[in-house]
Amino acid sequence: MVSWWRRQRLKVTLSRSSSPNLYRSFLDQLLLRSSQNQNVVAVFNAGLRFYDNALEFAHAVANYMTSALDRGAGLIVFPEYFGNLLMGMAGEPIDLDDQSTLELIGMISPVLYSTYVDIFLQISAKTDATIVGGTLAFVDNGKLVNRAFVFRRGNVILTQDKAHLMPMEEKWGMSRGSRLGLFDVGTQKAGVLVCMDATYYEQARILENMGARLLIVPSANPAPFYLGEQIRGAWARAQTSQVFTAQSFLVGKLGSYVFEGKAGVYAPHNYTEDLSGIIALSKKYDQEEVVTGELDYERLNRARQPRDFRFQAELSKFYQSKLPLDRF
Predict the structure, then answer these.
(1) CA distance linking residue 135 with residue 158, whole number of Å
(2) pTM above 0.85, yes or no
(3) Which pLDDT value is given to residue 324?
(4) Which of 18, 72, 78, 104 ranks highest by number of CB atoms within 10 Å?
(5) CA–CA separation, 138 and 101 (whole Å)
(6) Distance CA 99, CA 106 (A)
(7) Are 231 and 205 in contact (CB under 8 A)?
């Protein structure tokens, strides 16, 4: 049972830390580049840091955006749980193993949602770039969901709930996503796989059959970097579904948990000259970094192979003998 005193304290704290008056002036004056190349995608290793107020969060988003736009990106991908970095506004400790943190999400979900969406809507209105704003875990209609949001020109153009949950999320009682959608990127179509969704080929294959040629993978892996986990996700889906994939990671420490991973942009292995399937990859797995990759869809169409028995046999041989382990 959540105490009355806790609710009242949160109400007062959030009224100060989440007020739109804190960040509206900053965003009104914010200038961002426009007319970027939709075929250039930027992915991040973004730092795990809880922001004390909405203005700090708005500054962080603007800094990430500026870094990506300066590199010519027209599609910008934030990591999983990026929106939950706003939980610092509540002024309470965050412990992934403590029931009080789940209670906190439930109590502040309306403020979390409105602040996160409002900041990204305003920033997306400042540029022509498409923004995958990572995900936000919040309570929607009585259910805890982990939802990705895609923003463009001041609008939400797609939401996608995570379907394949981690054991930790199952313990929290999180609801699974049950539908898939696509959004346009220039003349192409893209879909979203939230972290563990990219570990299983079925969801990627469905999106590819729906017409997706790019799969976006916002991620936050609560474990030290491990090569096997890295390559079984976004990189592997580029091979099995013959599409581009782009993955961002949340990196840092939270209590006893270490979040690590390498942000990257991937393609079918025969799209790249070295047959690695790696278009761009961050150098570090535990530090902030932005990397960009340019996507050539005509070249992708030439590289794509029919998924027949011969393709499966060749892919099996590739996995056995030519995995680009040295590149990771």
Answers:
(1) 12
(2) yes
(3) 78
(4) 78
(5) 12
(6) 11
(7) no
Task: Give the Å distances, CA to CA, from 96 to 232, 254, 257, 277.
Answer: 25, 8, 9, 35
- Name the residue range of residue 304's domain: 4-327
Amino acid at 192: V
Instruction: Write down the pLDDT at residue 306.
Output: 72
Chain centroid offset of residue 136 CA: 10
Could you tell me the CATH number of the domain that includes residue 217? 3.60.110.10
Q: Dig out the tokens for 321 from the structure.
A: 């003998």
Dist CA 221 CA 163 (whole Å): 16
By the 8 A CB rule, do 115 and 89 touch? yes
Give the residue carrying structure tokens 């107020």.
53
Task: Determine which of 69-78, 94-103, 306-315 has the lowest per-residue pLDDT on average.
Answer: 306-315
Mean pLDDT of 46-50: 98
Structure-token match 């996503």, residue found? 177
Residue 287 pLDDT grade (very low, low, confident, very high; cuts 50, 70, 90)? very high
